[in-house]
Amino acid sequence: MTTQTDIDTTALVRSLDLETKVRLLTGATSFTLAPEESIGLGELRLSDGPTGVRGLKFSGGRTVALFPNATLLASAWDEETTTEVGRLLAEEALAQEIHVVLGPTINLHRSVLGGRLFEAYSEDPLLTGKLAAAYVRGLQSLAVGACLKHLVANESETNRNSMSSVVDEKTLRELYLLPFEIATAESDPWSMMAAYNDVNGVAATEHDHVINEVVKGEWDYSGLIMSDWFATKTAAPAAAGGLDLVMPGPAGPWGETLVAAVRAGELDESVIDDHLRRLLVLADRVGALGELREFPADLPAPDSAVRREQLTRLAAAGITVLTNAQETLPLSRGTSVALIGRHALETIDMGGGSAQVNPPYQVSVAEGLTALLGDDVEVVDGVEVRTRPVPARPGFVLDPDTGRPGVHLTLLAADGTVLDEQHDAPATVVVGFDDDFDQPVARVRFRARVAAEGPVEVGVIGPGTWDLRIGDSSLSYDLRTSGAGFGEELLAPPVETSTVDVTGDDIVDGVAMLRPPTRTEVVEDVSELDAEAEPFGGVGLFGLVARPAPRAHDETIAAAVEAASRAEVAVVVVGLTEEQETESVDKSTIRLPGQQDALVSAVAAAARKTVVVVNAATPVLMPWLDEVDAVLWAGLPGQEGGHAVAATLLGDLEPTGRLVTTFPAEEGAAPAWSVTPVDGKVEYTEGTFIGYRGHWAGQAPEPAFWLGHGLGYGTWEYTDATVSLAGPSPVVSVTVANTGGRDSREVVQVYLEPAEADEPVRLVGWAAVEVPAGGSASVRVTTDPRLWRAWDTASAQWSRIADGGRLLVARGLGDVRASLPLG
Ligand code: BGC
Questions:
Q1: Tens-digit pLDDT profile for residues 719-758
Q2: Which class does domain 397-548 fall in?
Q3: How many whole angstroms from 286 Cα to the centroid of ligand 1?
Q4: Topology given in CATH for the domain delimited by 714-821
Q5: Does the C-beta of 228 come closer than 6 Å to ligand 1?
Q6: CATH number given to 319-384+552-655
Q7: Does the predicted TM-score (pTM) go above 0.90?
Q8: Does any ligand 1 atom lie closer than 6 A to the CB of residue 633?
Q9: What is the pLDDT of residues 655-664, one digit of tens each?
Q10: How many angstroms is it from 195 CA to the middle of ligand 1?
């Protein structure tokens, strides 16, 4: 096993007693590993990615750069872009003295209902694997460790801790393990994370076949495999199954139980030694063993000019033109624009869950477009997009003491001791997850000035007895969880609001006495609960709501229609929110929430031209597609999102994205749909035919848009496509001419359609090229030999797929430009 230095990790392991070795194999806190002075092991510090490096705290940590989400970054179909992202994330990590970033997420987009797809790159394993390798290379080039997650078959969230993904070996190898295999071979990631779910009835954290036989055995993986947080179910079976490290700690299922298992002869001590050796190798690689690394001091701040430029450019690279009738886009300067929609004002820049970060600012599309077009833009709010009130946005509320966006947050103990106090803070706080106070938090207080006049909706989030004052009004709320079970206090805490008139100077002051979680017992008569009986002992999210009072949909739509008919172009921004795109919860529909479809149709009927910007990471239905002139896919574009969307709408930057997921045309019209376990199982019955592969085979109707679709602002002619069969795998050459009036970037995609009907069509390679207007370029695409393999279950080996079939040179399978027969 290679290490960075000459440190003899085997000897270090041998110098420790069993108890110490086992203790080091469970985290010390939520995101750190214990140091061990006797062997020169420093504290190892981990942080979530992959959209930014959040730091050691789950919430309320320091401000860090918020990157575009993974699907948007992947939509650039560009390894250099992803390597740059890895390098920048490494800088963000080093600035916080973090050694390992918990990303990339490389599960596949099996069903579009998966709540967490926004964190993962694509439905395609080659694209995912190549981009993951590029990201890891960028991260690790600065000696910050990457962590491929979640091993494996973790494509949905419903009952994720208990469900079993049922996947045959061929499908596992050819699809779900392939990104891990490619990234391991091409970037040697220093860690991986074993998933929450079971795979074929065996916990992923104790999966001897996957971890020991395939990853550590066949692939000769030299890194460390940690568990997902709280995912480890057993001691000896998990340790024997190949899991190296239990996260988080300090409590966990290993400790004394594992020591006892070794002493009882159930597990050989050499197994423990190997886990610890891998941990020391990781520590050595990231500079936490022997001579401890020095962290650089002069890295760009998350709001620096250099980060602003990088984040705008990275977002634009993935923004995708889905339709563009009569070159509606880009818009010319001087055009009058009615900019409509809740997402224009409150652009969604990240998904929910562990990928969330605390960014220094977020630029909305309204701010971005107004900065470029000034008075030519009229901004109009759209219909409601959420089912639950959201925490107050900084800007709508100001810290009363500093006058800056945010709130004044105070956490207090039962005796009134101030445990923490923050200015300009976000309007939510998580209590109980990684607190390091001397006493438990018993009260939370939010103070803020509401920077609005007229009716506003104010309220509170989180279980407790709340006392809220605003202006002359005094409100009290008694919020309780339903008792629905683990996670409710964090993911769907109770919320209550009222409508109050404010003057622009009013201070809202909300204090909660936290209520102990009701946990699993269903409470029928909530009055039986006594708030003060026991301290709040769980993990919960608390927050302050303040936002413009909601209007009736028809009034909102009427105002939008009026603005649209006054302007030369209406730009409607629609999308999803973190209610749909989040860890822990799957979607039940791909319809846009609320009355957004009605809003688009009404605007399109009134406007001279209508452009729709979709602010979401994953497919939505577009029943108004034929009614509008252009559709721009903006993903979850990160803190510079508004600037990136504005720059691409005006053509200052080309939206060069190509889709990474196939968009079904109807609800259910995809090869894999339901993500709800039946009898605890999600059966991957579609096999290797997910996404475009299944649509092409006729297993689902023609999609609305294929993976790889994206128009950019160029127009392209393909000529002289040829294939060379010499060498380990075929190479395609083709000439592409940019026949449009703008310089542009083209992504040439090559798909293999095998001769055998039971083998799906698949992406086997791609290459991108930038071509000036009127110019042409010759492009070579070397196909990836790993996509010419088929897993033979009977012999448990790879074979080569049969000769014959054809290669398709395409801009997504809806626009095939050349067909090259093979043999
Ligand atoms: C997620 C992981 C994440 C971990 C730590 C888990 O809930 O599944 O992706 O890294 O939490 O926050």
A1: 999 999 988 899 999 999 999 999 999 999 999 999 999 9
A2: mainly beta
A3: 21
A4: Immunoglobulin-like (2.60.40)
A5: yes
A6: 3.40.50.1700
A7: yes
A8: no
A9: 999 999 999 9
A10: 9
